């Protein structure tokens, strides 16, 4: 009998971020129905670290507890009808399809909200529902690199260092979970559902609230020191590689395709699922040796044309100026009474009916003491006595 008992969640997500968010709701008592293809969700067939388990691999096991599985073909009319029927009694619908897929399947917010106006519809994406990067692959490593996070660790003479965890997936999961709960609370007050949009780029960028504000507000450059400050479960190539003018990130590329593009004959006969583990160090070294011969822009253009998952490695200056960041409105600006004009990461969750706003900046010590104590019913004389006695402080 968890705190979310009585809440029904239709989890139509795959991989990590969406399932992790839905699992959190299940852990709190929600009835989470995992809606997956009859062949099983993608993560059932992809074993991180090669940990395949008996019938359920560790990757899937770790992200899908406290759920019931409904295996259904949503491309069949009957299957889709089943899902739409369930929408009538659902509280939360969660999906992380690529932009445009939900509409093609007929399970977009506009369609489902007509069936159930009380529905909380959580839509998760890599970079946003629209904008210049909407169709780029939303993969953890690529988003770590683009967010500027990698440039905050490691030594100055070494390549940017990725986190040893699926950091962006986890943060995005918690962001979606937070958004779903907030929307449920709004519905409790008003009776109305709404669309909740979360994307990985905004989630990983805004979680660096302090660091990015030091850069944007404090004016301190992002500088790594001479000595390092600070995944062994992903097949090669997976990491950050130097180019002739910078660095790029590459994630889980087809070895044959990559070998052809970088003119590395060693890759021609390698198998992605076996040799990429057995020869992981050699593969990395080969890619590293080849990529220094061309610029980041040249490699990114070539790789994207051939469906190689890749992305730039940003510092904070690049993050702030990035067109997708600007399109998303990832940063907010406002005037603070003592700090002047402030530019800082904003809100990773976009509520369609209850948007977030900056109503006040960070308060001074005791700035609102009198106001708050007045709301408790205390008269001004009593409040001033508390201030004089040092029990409270007023700004």
Largest sheet: 7 strands, mixed
- What CATH first level of the largest domain would be assigned? Alpha Beta
How are strands sequenced across the largest beta sheet? 3-2-1-4-5-6-12
* Topology as a string of helices (H) and strands (E): EHEHEHEHHEHHEHHEEHHHHEHHEEEHH
Tell me the domain tally.
3
Mean pLDDT: 92
Helix content: 25-40%
Shape: globular
What is the number of strand segments?
Answer: 12
Radius of gyration from the alpha-carbon trace, in angstroms:
24 Å
Enzyme class: transferase
GO molecular function, one term: transferase activity
Protein name: CoA transferase
Organism: Brevundimonas olei
Write a structural description:
The longest helix has 24 residues, at 167-190. The protein folds into three domains: 8-206, 3-Layer(aba) Sandwich (Rossmann fold), CATH 3.40.50.10540; 231-313, 2-Layer Sandwich (formyl-coa transferase, domain 3), CATH 3.30.1540.10; 363-395, no CATH class. α1 crosses α7 (167-190) and α7 crosses α8. The chain has 17 helices and twelve strands. 37% of the residues are buried. Strands 3-2-1-4-5-6-12 form a seven-stranded mixed sheet, with helices on both faces. The protein is α/β, with parallel strands linked by helices. It is 37% helix and 15% strand. It has helices at 17-27, 58-63, 77-87, 101-105, 109-115, 140-146, 167-190, 200-206, 209-216, 255-262, 275-278, 280-291, 296-305, 316-321, 323-328, 369-375, 380-388; strands at residues 8-11, 31-36, 67-71, 92-95, 120-125, 194-199, 238-242, 247-251, 310-312, 331-336, 340-345, 349-351. The model has no long low-confidence stretch (mean pLDDT 92). The radius of gyration is 24 Å and the shape is globular. Keywords: Transferase. Its EC number is 2.8.3.-. One of its GO terms (molecular function) is transferase activity.
């Amino acid at each position: 009998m968890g705190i979310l008992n009585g809440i029904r969640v239709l989890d139509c997500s795959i991989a990590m971020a969406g399932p992790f968010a839905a699992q959190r709701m299940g852990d709190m008592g929600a009835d989470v129905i995992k809606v997956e293809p009859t062949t099983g969700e993608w993560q059932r067939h992809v074993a991180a670290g090669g940990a395949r388990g008996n019938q359920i691999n560790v990757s899937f096991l770790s992200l899908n507890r406290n759920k019931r599985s409904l295996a259904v073909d949503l491309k069949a009319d009957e299957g889709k009808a089943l899902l739409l029927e369930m929408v009538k009694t659902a509280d939360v619908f969660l999906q992380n399809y690529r932009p445009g897929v939900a509409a093609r399947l007929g399970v977009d917010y506009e369609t489902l909200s007509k069936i159930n106006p009380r529905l909380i519809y959580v839509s998760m994406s890599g970079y946003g529902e629209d904008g210049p990067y909407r169709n780029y692959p939303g993969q953890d490593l690529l988003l770590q690199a683009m967010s500027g996070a990698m440039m905050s660790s490691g030594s100055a003479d070494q390549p940017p260092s990725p986190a040893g965890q699926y950091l962006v997936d986890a943060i995005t999961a918690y962001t979606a979970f937070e958004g779903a709960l907030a929307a449920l609370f709004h519905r409790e007050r008003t009776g109305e559902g709404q669309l909740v949009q979360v994307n990985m780029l905004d989630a990983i960028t805004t979680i660096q609230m302090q660091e990015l504000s030091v850069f944007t507000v404090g004016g301190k450059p992002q500088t790594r020191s001479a000595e390092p400050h600070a995944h062994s479960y992903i097949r090669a190539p997976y990491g950050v590689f130097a180019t002739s003018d910078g660095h790029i990130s590459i994630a889980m590329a087809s070895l044959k395709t990559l070998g052809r593009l970088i003119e590395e004959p060693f890759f021609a006969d390698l198998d992605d699922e076996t040799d990429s583990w057995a020869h992981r160090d050699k593969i990395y070294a080969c890619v590293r040796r080849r990529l220094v011969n061309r610029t980041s822009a040249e490699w990114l253009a070539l790789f994207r044309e051939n469906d190689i998952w890749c992305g730039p490695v940003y510092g904070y200056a690049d993050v702030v100026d990035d067109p997708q960041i600007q399109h998303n409105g990832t940063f907010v600006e406002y005037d603070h009474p003592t700090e002047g004009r402030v530019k800082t990461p904003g809100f990773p969750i976009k509520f369609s009916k209850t948007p977030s706003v900056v109503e006040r900046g960070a308060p001074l010590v005791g700035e609102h003491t009198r106001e708050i104590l007045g709301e408790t019913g205390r008269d001004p004389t009593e409040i001033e006595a508390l201030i004089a006695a040092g029990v409270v402080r007023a700004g």
